[in-house]
Design a protein that fits this description.
Layout (H helix, E strand, L loop, with lengths): L9 H7 L3 E5 L14 E2 L2 E4 L5 E12 L6 E11 L11 E7 L2 E2 L11 E9 L3 E11 L9 E5 L10 E10 L5 E11 L3
Antiparallel strand pairs: 1-7, 1-12, 2-8, 3-8, 3-11, 4-10, 4-12, 5-9, 5-11, 6-8
Length: 189
């Protein structure tokens, strides 16, 4: 029997099984770094030994600043061989973790992923993919500036990997609020 993400009822069943999680920045947002920055502010780490495969579902972003926002080409960076713990001289040397929320509010499993909504220091990541979202405005506060990216089951994060939000260009003072939704399934290697 197929377990496609696109099979009717599969995602609701995973949500009810307590396998879908939410990680969000603070409502005030964060300043997104360049794709190659070692100082990360919004990322998801599937540590070595977690026992789960992470399937990103959707990323939602919105401009949270009153400045004149300019953001070019939001996307993801990644760090393979990220290890299983923060370690001096390791791939991840600092990680401010926040507890992801189970999408089955008040019930469900605890996430095996490590999520940072604010700060991590990692070895130099590589550009992974564009999510095709850019914003530009000629003045502060003009119109709604929001975007959503649906991963459509096209990315998997096995243990020992990290992904983070990055940009090719971001104007100083542009602050983004972001939310990532993901599913955790048993890792079978």
């Amino acid at each position: 029997m197929s377990t496609s993400l696109f099979q009717p009822g599969y995602l609701p069943a995973q949500l009810l099984a307590g396998n879908v999680f939410i990680g969000s920045s603070a409502a005030a947002g964060v300043t997104i770094p360049a794709f190659t920055a070692t100082a990360q502010v919004f990322g998801l780490w599937n540590p070595l030994g977690s026992g789960v495969e992470i399937i990103p579902l959707a990323l939602e972003i919105g401009i949270a600043t009153g400045a004149t926002p300019v953001v070019a080409d939001l996307g993801l960076c990644y760090l393979p061989n990220a290890g299983g713990q923060v370690a001096t001289g390791g791939q991840i040397t600092a990680f401010t973790s926040a507890t992801p929320v189970n999408a089955r509010l008040g019930l469900g499993n605890r996430s095996k992923a490590l999520f940072t909504p604010s700060a991590a220091t990692i070895a130099a990541p590589s550009f992974l993919m564009s999510i095709g979202l850019s914003f530009a405005s000629t003045s502060a506060g003009t119109g709604v500036q929001y975007g959503q990216y649906d991963f459509n089951g096209m990315l998997s994060l096995p243990p020992n990997n990290y992904i983070g939000l990055g940009s090719s260009t971001i104007q100083s003072g542009t602050i983004i609020a972001a939310t990532l939704f993901w599913m955790e399934l048993p890792y079978s290697g």
